[in-house]
What does this fold into?
Amino acid sequence: MIQKLSILGLAALLGSFSAFGEKPLGVDDKLSALRALKVEAGTITSVERDPSATKTIVKLVLNPAKGSNINVEVWLPDVEKWNARFLGLGNGGAAGKINPGALASASSAGYAVATTDMGTAPNPDSGIGNEEVWKDFGFRATHLMTVVGKQIVKAHYGRAPELSYFSGGSTGGQQALQEAQRYPEDYDGIAAAVAAHCRTPLHAYFLWNDQILKKCPFSKEQDASVIAAANEYMASRQIPAAAGKFVSDPRCTAQDIEAVITLARKKDGTLTDEHAAALRKLFDGPRHAVTGERIFNGIPLGSSIAASHGHLYLFNWVFGKDKNLADINFGADIDTYTAALAPYLNAENPDLSAFAKRGGKLIMTLGTADSVVPYHASIDYYERVIERLGGLEQAQAFFRFYFVPGLAHGGGPGINQPPNLLDTVRAWRETGTAPFALQGHHAENGKPTLEMTIYPYPHQTGWSAATKRFEPMEGKRGGVERIAERFRPSAADSRLRQAPPIAR
It folds into this structure.
């Protein structure tokens, strides 16, 4: 292995030779060669050296269909700094722009790295009535970014990457799971943090909450009172590090919800009967107005009400910008919305057998205090993967899910995202050693205040009074109401799933 790597490294250092093998191409020649590179259904718009003169930055636009306009950037560290890996980076929210800071960080770490604006520039309105943007945002932009990224890597270094990884959170988590499900040949390892994979039901939840909160708003203080009541009520079920501070397992019953509402009103006299009625709806979550079917679950106990609404651009995509979103009903309108977008946007296929068969490794995380991407759909998705593959052992052989205590979207109020998920999934793929215990950190004012060891679902973090250490304990399975299958229909454009494997 050492000998093989040294030969490959030497070849990369020498670069591309002229037809007579007289000398390697210089920097300017390499830039010219990249500018002249032909990419399918796209145009390279810029090839430049970065100001530090340690990497090359390639910008391009892909137009796979009329109405599709996908921006992509590929950052290439100089050959002596390249780790022979390709990294795809996810986006966030409605995307529409590229984050140069994330690209700079990854390329400085040695990765040839690519990301995309997912085809939604200059803003989410680009998706209004445009089915091609729906496809791009759902899955196509990420896959095509990967294809062209690897093409550029091979052209620049003279060889394909040895291994390829993807890392993304929130919308990036949707991208991550779409890749594992639709294009298992694209990546060898995937880190999917706080994944917004159940996309159209999630945005129905945002709308449900938005409509309720417009009629019955909560002040910042009232929101804090409800969170504090949940933390206090659930404290007896928590380990000492979490008790009264955050809810490390918000799975609950209707009786628990009623008890939290009662406690919140006892401690905060400004919470009215109207607030109590609103909280029952918010904690239960959206159901179909006609059939009563579960569309999505409710706000997790101990998480922010204020953060649980907004993000309504998907409804503009289907109904137009002039539609009064307060008038959208959870009957026929939600059926129309689901039929239009769900087959493109949702990453809900539990059959990951093709990804597993080729040796792929996947880590997914979700926070217990996240009201932007609540935990329910991720627990249920993992359970459906277990069912599809025939058991927990079969799923955990390549796919680990970490249910992070107290994690909210973007961190706090409890444990922050375990660090180095990408490093963890890469070590798993390259050494064959599956991860188990991860360290989560909570910091205030930049200083660590609490650390907790986190274990893969269904394990939970326990505490040994004897050893005064965190220890894994058996946790319950499931415990969430399943979203009705018709709100997470099968993926559209299955022909794209049959794309030829990418040369490695």
The longest helix spans residues 131-157. DSSP finds 16 helices and 13 strands in the chain.
